[in-house]
Amino acid sequence: MTSTTTSTPPVASAPQEPRSTGAGARRRRLRDLRFALLMAAPALVVIVLLLGYPMGYALYVSGFDWNDKIPGDRPFVGLGNYVDLLGDGQVHRALGRTLLFAAVTVLGGVGMAVLLAVLLNVDFRGRTLARVLLLVPWAVPPVVNGIMWKLIFDGATGVVNAVGLGLGLFRERVQFLADPQLTMNVLIFAEMWKLLPFLTLLMLAGLQGIPANVYKAARIDGASPWQQFVRVTVPNLRGPILFALVVQTMWSLKVFDTIFVLTGGSGGPAEGTTTLSFLTYLVSFSNLDRGYGAAIAVASMVLVLAFALLWVLLLRDRHKEGVR
Amino acid sequence: MVNSFSRRRALQLGALTAGSLALGGCVSANDPSAGGAAAPEDGPLRPGSAPSGEITILDDNTNTTFQASTIAAFEAATGIKVKSYTQGNFNDLHDRFATLFAAQDSSVDVVMTWAGWSAEFGQAGWLQELDASAVPSDLIQPALDAVSWDGKVYGLPKFSSVQTMFWNKEMFAAADLDPETAPQDWDEFVAAAKAMTREGQWGYACDIGNAAGAYQNFLRVLLLNGGDMYDADYKPIFNSEQGVEALTRFQELLTLHQVMDPASLQTTNASDLGDQFARGSTGIVFNWPFQYAVATGEESQLDASTVGNGLIPGMSVRSASIDGSEGFAISKFSQNKEAALAWLQFVATGEVQSKIVADEGWFPVSEPVLTDPASIEALPVLQTYQESTQYATKRWGVPWSSELDQLLSVQISEVMNQTTTPKEALDNAAAQTEELVRRYLG
């Protein structure tokens, strides 16, 4: 029955095939293409207006020496602002912080997400509740997330200090938000907390797709749990992992809201949390140096695109390896 | 041929036209090649003979009187309607204003300002200059300075503000200090702070957690040691011997004497500092006038009998302070400038100023209210303000205030965290400031 059912349609459609390669088919394809473009047009217009125009305008502005606080001419300086970027210590420091932040949050976040997903994939009592609770940080708006961690790590009234002192872990109150390095650590922690649910869900979905009989075969072959994780789980999660690396890298390089809330809009202390995105904001909106701010924004965009491209190339290569 | 101009083509052309107009509008409003402020130059604003219409006001959240009574009184007196009065957090307003102005937005007529923004936005051409005839003659000069830059007046002050010292008399008494006698110099201040510092309480606290706070705290100690920010030609001189010594002694409060609450390094505004003092576990703070109202308020652990107030003790001079007066300015892009000016003038009247003194605890901007005995009766700390006028009180609001705050806060934070020395920090900051001055003043 099954073979009869599946073989019927090709037979029925066979006489139409010669006609489908003719002029009529081309017209149909053209008409379909036009229809598809028409359907996509509203989205394309929105993208052009909301993304393309600002990006193009930023590129345009970055060619001018435009500081609102200096009245008069705004001379066109071409690549002058970009040349200045190369020798600007503040930009170099911000770039370093951005890369550090991205490296820790991306690699740490994805790594922890894999481990959490493996744990949540194990059948245990309360697993559903644990999975629901996992989503809580994702449901918290970024600004609330920043305020929450600011209060928790407050040097005078924060819970972390109260617990640390109560358990004898700290000899005195730790001023987490007064030291540049400590504040960067708090920022990384707050961001990791926020990003883990999405990444973990991604990995969990990937794990659901691994057939149980693969693990069964591995166990029959005598593989230990660690060997199963390394030889079965990780290779099968390659797709989700690489996707997570791409999106999380882009998000981490663009981090802004948590920094703003956590540091009271300063990117401090001692510019210790001023990443490239935050520096763009400070230069453009606090200092009103629009041309230079736009140049930093464009440079940041190039950086994000470069990393995205890097991951995509890696993804493609890995995919080819997998095919082979 | 019949179908050459179909409905679809018409829709396409319509969408293209709309898009082009939208983009063109955006570009024309913010085209860098078009030069500076685009508003037509119409000269300083004079008072109108019979201003009318409606105005929109965007203020910070330091005043409660306006919503409670001033707006109603203004509408009754002038017939001008206040369409909207909105308050925002001071730390957020700069960027909000900058965005409004850059977009040449005319929806807001009146904006709150202070010395730094008057210089910054005034030089940008975003604030309406006022004619001398629009400025009341009884204004106190420091208050008027807060709305002026480079010889031009860009607004009218709404209250005066100078930092003074507040101390907790209960903590003084508990530390065997005379609660009625203020420390007269820096050494006495340090000694008092040391005596009060013990488990769970600090002798002194401040707010250097953000860029503006760091600048203010540094400027204050600089003035207290007889130093200054610039010479007559705006050459930075804050890295002088007085400056280095002042910053060193400030740092020692945290590192050597250990009388400064370490949380001061993360406290980002004066309101939080005010609340901290009102909780009763901080001996001394140098804060704005509102501190008195907060410390004697219903939610405070203190009251009028346990809050001391006096001049900030100096290092090499008897005293000095920083100015934080605020005012209102008119957006260059406002369509209701005469009505807006009427609001500015109304707020500066004696009637409104007396309410601001009595109900909010800020200092007045008009001389008659300042010298009125009823004002001192309503706000005892006004007496300290009158005394402080004998000593240096500055703010140095300049167009490069934002950049200066940022670069100085980095250096001060590093000094407080002992990763650099006060001299290195100030030399570094002075070199960067010199670049800024060159850029903005030529």
Main pleated sheet of chain B: 5 strands, mixed
Strand order of the largest sheet of chain B: 2-1-3-12-6
CATH-level-4 superfamily name of the largest domain in chain B:
Periplasmic binding protein-like II
CATH class of chain A: Mainly Alpha
Number of domains of chain A: 1
Shape of chain A: flat
Task: Tell me the strand percentage band of chain A.
Answer: under 5%
Largest interface: A-B, 44 and 49 residues
| Parts with pLDDT < 50 across at least 5 consecutive residues of chain B | 20-28
- Main CATH class of the largest domain in chain B: Alpha Beta
Shape of chain B: globular
What oligomeric state is this? heterodimer
Number of strands of chain A: 0
Which structural class do you get from the secondary structure elements of chain B? Answer: alpha/beta
- Within the CATH hierarchy, at the fold level, what is the topology of chain A? MetI-like fold
Cα gyration radius of chain A (Å): 26 Å
